[in-house]
Amino acid sequence: MAMFELHPGLILLTGALLAIFLPARLRQTVMLLAPVLALISLFSLQNGTVWNHDFINGLTLTVLKVDGLSWVFALIFTMTALLSNVYALRVKNGGESAAGMAYAGAALGVVFAGDWLTLFFFWELMTVSSIFLIWYRKTPSAIRAGLRYILVHFFGGNLLLAGIFLKVTSGQVEVGVLTGTNDAAFWLILLGISVNTAIPPLHAWLTDAYPEGTITGSVFLSAFTTKVAVYCLIRIFPGVELLIWAGVIMTLYGVIYAVIENDIRRLLSYHIVSQVGFMVAAVGIGTELALNGAVAHAYSHILYKSLLFMSAGAVIYATGKSKLSDLGGLYKQMPLVAILFIIGAFSISGVPLFNGYISKSMITSAAAAGYLPVAERLLYLASIGTFLSICLKLSYFMFFAPSEKRQKVEKVPINMLAAMSMGAFLCFLYGIIPSMLYQYLPFNATYNPFTWEHAISTIQLQVAALVIFVVFIKKLGVKPKMSLDTDWLYRKPLNYFIFAISSFVTSFQARFGVFGFGFLGHMVHFFSEPVSNIQLDKLKDDIFCPIYGKDHYWFPVGAIVFTVLVMLIIVFTCAVLM
Q1: Where are the domains of the chain?
Q2: Residues 232-289 pLDDT 10s
Q3: 3-class secondary structure, 3
């Protein structure tokens, strides 16, 4: 074992545990030291390193397995954890700081997991830790969005667990490529991962929850969940043709909603859906060039998307506003933030000499080489939408558009500006020296992004987007509105359905009150509104009353947990009988 050969994820998880209890100064030290130590440990891990642990009944868990794919994802995750912690240094709540580090550590745990059970454990730890990055904002909308977020992820996690049960009971413990499309485990695992990948119509949890996170929490959220899911797709489902068209749909779906969106972080969230679509399509193409493109674009995306969310967070911190219709003319008051945001916008748009250019073009080239002209042209169309909505619309209406009233702007803390500057520097550095990334790509394919053909075609697309923006600038002008998405289905109709179930349960309890104020009564009431019912002394007066009103938007977690338990029992029984 090397002198400092430790699991990078466990280092971050240890830092998270310390952050809960340490005072502010020591917590800040841990926030910087933990990801630095994780980086040092990562560079000490050799390709082929495997750590096994004997579990139960002869089952061996592979808690760490290092290869080219896991290492490059671990590198960008650890770097981003450092940048995000620098950005969050002034956060006063130790719990929020701990949640961010635990989330990043769990992501590393998934990346290095060599068996299905270890992967699932860290997969669920990501969900549990990330939810606090939303809830710590402590607004009613954040609490509601967080509940929806965790329920959707528990649903996806249990689909994944059902598939894992089938694989483990059939003797396949090691994580590997799945190919049998007539296998139930194949589809269960694919659907479970698809929830975290935010493939429409399973995507709305992302655009619902990420804008509601804390200023620093949304930076963490933008970096890990969807990219961990992309890693799993590359590892488990390379070359599944269905993913090509799922990815193409994602790229277009995201940019369409981004063009009409008013909230700056929701707009950026839709572009997570769109940009992850490029990666999903590349996984579906499945060639070595395409898979390298998926890895490279995930790497680039984490850098520029975290920079964009940092910049948006700086604007919200300084102005207290998150709607484009309330902003404008901030360039003179926040020139550095504007410049750093534009670097991120150039990067996500694939402007030459920025990191998005060196990765996105790999995917479109792979589509062309794979004789997929329709997919290639639709990906180019999505690129136009990205440049239009981020580089032009968002930049203009946030920083340069005339504002009817002068914005009152607070000073942005130096640590936030430092993190943004480091992220912007990396976006530019990788854009001009792509070999710094290409040397770590895991598949045997070479690529040169700096050809006249690529540069000219990219610039032509961006000029076309600029013309569209200039011609339709009045139509693209922002208005105070909210766009409906597929989350409406579980905000409204499904909510009423669950209300009916909850009313039935409480009515049954009221009619057959044999349990009095005992355990069942407490459980029914608690799980109806777990956040607001931590104090059980309120039960006495209203335990038999209907819990939900027609305008109430809390979800009864107990009903969902009960359903999940029933599903797990059925799946386990079927697995045993088979």
Answers
A1: 238-480, 493-577
A2: 999 999 999 999 999 999 999 999 888 888 899 999 999 999 999 999 999 999 999 9
A3: coil
Give the separation between CA 398 and CA 385, rounded to whole angstroms: 18
Residue 183, φ and ψ in degrees, nearest 5: -100, 125
Q: How far apart are CA 235 and CA 4, in angstroms?
A: 27
Question: How does residue 1 score in pLDDT terms, banded at 50, 70 and 90?
Answer: very low
What sign does the CA torsion over 342, 347, 352, 353 have? positive
Listing DSSP states for 455-484 in one string gives HHHHHHHHHHHHHHHHHTHHHH---S----
Task: Tell which residue, 66, 2, 8, 63, has the closest CA to residue 38.
Answer: 8
CB 423 within 8 A of CB 267: no
- Separation CA 569–CA 156 (nearest Å): 17
Strand, helix or coil for residue 428: helix
The position carrying tokens 């839709």 is 270
Q: From 110, 95, 101, 89, select the one nearest 28 (Cα to Cα).
A: 89
Please name the amino acid found at residue 375. A
Encode 304-334: b = buried (16+ Cβ within 10 Å), e = exposed.
bbbbbbbbbbbbbbbbeebbbebbbbbbeeb
The residue among 296, 288, 297, 285 whose CA lies nearest residue 439 is: 296
How many residues in the chain? Answer: 578
CA 169 centroid distance within chain: 30
Residue type, 348: I
Tokens found for residue 499: 């209300």
Q: Which helix (H) or strand (E) holds 305?
A: helix 288-319
Cβ atoms within 10 Å, residue 531: 12
First to last CA, the chain: 42
Distance of alpha carbon 134 from alpha carbon 280, whole angstroms: 26
- In tens, the pLDDT along 72-122 reads 999 999 999 999 999 999 998 999 999 999 999 999 999 999 999 999 999
pTM for the predicted model, two decimal places: 0.85
Give CA–CA dist 45/336, Å, rounded.
38
Peptide bond into 373 cis (omega under 30): no
- Using the structure block, give the residue that is written with the tokens 């049954």: 508
Token pair for 531? 């956040």
